[in-house]
Design goal:
Layout lengths: L2 H5 L3 E4 L2 E5 L5 H28 L9 H5 L3 E6 L2 E13 L2 E11 L8 H15 L4 E6 L4 H6 L3 E2 L4 E5 L2 E11 L1
Parallel strand pairs: 5-6
Antiparallel strand pairs: 1-2, 2-3, 3-4, 4-5, 6-9, 7-9, 8-9
Length: about 180
Amino acid sequence: MSDEDFWFFEEEVMPNGIIRLAKPGEDSAIHAAHMRSIREICVNDHGEEEIRGWGFRELGNRWVDAIQRKEVWVIEDDGSIKGFGYIRIFEENGTTKAHLHALYLTPEIIGKKFATRLMGLMLEKAKISGAKEIALDSSITAHSFYKRFGFVDSGPMRQVDIGGYPVTSYPMCLEF
């Protein structure tokens, strides 16, 4: 797949749904899937206290620019958005880097291989873009998932403030 093909990747049909680039206007559906994933899946590892701010945030307009830049993919199953991924590619001190901001699924699609395929697409985008590393902040829930792809802890577990509540995360990175 060439760089040009990848940047305009629009859709991949899987046996049980579709992974495609997010479209303008889908920010509220992405936000709903994001909040559901936190409240219904991450709560099992993080607990109710951490979920209070993290899983009940207002939509705002945080997805609009990322969707326009073709940095957000959605997982569509049964005609609705059931998950998404967001990776940002950027330059820092003359080096191309990537930051994986999000990869969240709703309970209905866990175990259907969507997360693995979506991670593969985001890693491919980073490589094709010339990124030398990808950084992320992992939830407790996703920590072992990212390790399977070669990510390593890049610092100690920490707590970040999200919505006024401390949320546990692991800084991680993957170098190419």
